[in-house]
Amino acid sequence: MTILPRSPVAHALGEALGGTPFARSTWVVGGAVRDAWLGREREGDTDVVTESPLDDLLRALNAKGWPTVARYPRFGTAALRIAETTVEVVQARAESYVPDSRKPDVRPATLREDLLRRDFTINTLTQDLATGEVRDVLGSAFGDLEARLLRTPLDPVRTFEDDPLRLLRAVRFRAELDFDYAPGLAAAAKASADRLAIVSAERIRDEFVRMLVSPNAARALSDLVEFGLMSWIVPELLEGIGCSQGDYHHLDVFGHTLAVVQAAPPNRRLRLAALLHDIAKPTCRSVDADGRIRFFGHERVGADVARCRMRELRFSDAEIEGVVLLVRNHMRIGSFERFTPSAARRLLRDLGPSWPALLDLSAADQAAHRPGSPRANLDEIRTALLDAERVTPPTALVSPLDGEQIQRVLGLEPGPEIGLAKRFLEEEVIEGRLAAGDEEAAATLLIEKFRSSGKNGASS
């Protein structure tokens, strides 16, 4: 008998249902039990399965003060808030699918039938609400956990054909848990890859991001390519396979991308930027007469590609622009012969609070270059940026005068000269020749500029 400590949710449910008909027909199931068995910290929701009528169980739990926050009668599921956690409660069910949808027709069933329709055997353990006893109803979960194998309860082709989101879950679980695929699973995934076409962009995005921030992100990306799944997610990455890069690189573009992703800190913005930073290199690749490989403008083109691809995957506008900012600027750190105070101020102006993320991306990028390649001194650059930020915050790195003030100083009507004058003053601040916020000195500079150059002096 295997007994594990009950989570706060399981304990609360055990207390609430003790002595009722629901106590022996309701269990915690799935990832919460799996992670407890593996000794992993649990993040995310808790799943509960019941053989009792779902409506009866919900009424009993609602009476305890736990409200139903969502209800899906077609699928026999509901979500509640219990012990400050979202809990999905499912009536034990069997499923059948039609070919063009991953939304099943369901009917009430036994616990065993419910477990057979789940994605992997390691997610079929159940835990008794009262005692904490963990049961392996199908008889294969404990063995597969010991062997660190991902195996489907039913034939893997049927499992993936029924719900192709499980293709991505297989890759994600392998990356998160450091498991291997059971014999036949990889072949079934390859055979079913085109079924991913019926999965929504949002579901694909969520699974994909979880892979990217996992400990084995590079392996997950390789699996997606091997299984034929990447063409449904970020197909542009496939163009980097076999695309050589020249002197400072020992990897092709795709291999370099995997190395940068793996080296980047595991947060979603940085890992996405690492994934997409060189996405336009194959498009922008050229070879000089002397055989030197170039990728002119790939950061600018890549920013556009990144924006389009992330929109396809339904990322928020804020997240898209945050990643695009890093992709567009990822070449800047290594482009300075000497990182001067004005270079620091310029980077602060353009990156704002994102400059530490750009340094992290640059560090990961450098780590993936050929050993011995020239490298920017990131510690020196970080110190220079901190010093510049301490003296002048990024929000102050602007023209001390706004458009209306410039019109009054120069006696001009609204027009392009005003914008040119404003940019001139901003550059003077960046270069350190004008103190941030010094309106009087800014006005003097403008007048001198115009006197020496005539009315159009601000544009010269």
Walk me through this protein's architecture:
The chain is of the alpha+beta class and 460 residues long. It has 4 domains: 2-147, Beta Polymerase, domain 2; 148-233, Hydrophobic Seed Protein; 235-397, Hypothetical protein af1432, CATH 1.10.3210; 398-459. It is 47% helix and 11% strand. The chain contains 21 helices and 14 strands. It has helices at residues 8-17, 31-38, 54-62, 111-116, 141-147, 156-162, 165-177, 185-192, 201-212, 217-226, 253-263, 268-276, 281-284, 298-312, 317-329, 341-351, 355-367, 378-391, 403-410, 416-430, 439-453; strands at 2-3, 26-29, 46-50, 68-72, 77-82, 85-91, 93-96, 105-108, 126-128, 133-135, 149-150, 180-181, 286-287, 293-294. The strands form 4 sheets. The protein has an 8-stranded mixed β-sheet. Strands 7-8 form a two-stranded antiparallel sheet. A hairpin with an 8-residue loop joins strand 7 (93-96) and strand 8. The termini are far apart. Mean pLDDT is 91; it is low at 456-460.
